[in-house]
From TrEMBL:
Entry annotated with the keyword Phosphoprotein: yes
Descriptive protein name: Response regulator
PROSITE patterns membership: RESPONSE_REGULATORY (PS50110)
Superkingdom field: Bacteria
4-aspartylphosphate, modified sites: 61
Lineage summary: Bacteria, Pseudomonadati, Bacteroidota, Flavobacteriia, Flavobacteriales
InterPro entries: CheY-like_superfamily, Sig_transdc_resp-reg_receiver, TCS_response_regulator
CDD domains linked to this entry: REC_hyHK_CKI1_RcsC-like (cd17546)
A Pfam short name: Response_reg
Boundaries of every Response regulatory domain copy: 6-129
Keywords: Phosphoprotein
SMART domains for the chain: REC
Length: 129
């Protein structure tokens, strides 16, 4: 089975963007990585650029300007199920705040929580079916 989703990195930190992109390419051999700087840009990309049957994996930071990760999840919830069913969202954060972690874990649209920096040793188990 071929593993060829598009990854959308939603993170305002340039270093985290570059490190995550390189990890995805080197560890998972991902071809398509899109990077945006906040939740608003991420939603716009999903609505304007995502192809109909394309599998999309979103790596979402929590703390960002303009629209943070929680605000993104609120807006994402409003999208139609046809779009939402083709998208997996993983929170990628360095937060240690138990309230934020609880909020992430109870969100039905979030597939998982990954700590920064991404765990290269078990990265494959998260994303490869």
């Amino acid at each position: 089975m071929e593993f060829n989703p598009v990854f959308l990195i939603i993170d305002d930190n340039l270093i985290d963007q570059l490190v995550t992109q390189q990890l995805l390419k080197k560890v998972l051999h991902v071809n398509q990585v899109v990077i945006v700087n906040n939740g608003q840009e991420g939603l716009q990309w999903i609505l304007n650029s995502k192809k109909e049957t394309e599998k999309l994996i979103v790596l979402l930071d929590i703390q960002m300007p303009v629209m943070n990760g929680f605000e993104f999840l609120e807006e994402f919830q409003k999208l139609n199920d046809g779009i939402k069913n083709e998208i997996q969202i993983y929170i990628v954060s360095s937060t240690l705040d138990p309230d934020e972690i609880h909020q992430v874990k109870k969100n039905e649209n979030v597939s998982g929580f990954l700590s920064k920096p991404l765990p290269t040793d078990n990265l494959r188990k998260f994303f490869i079916p």
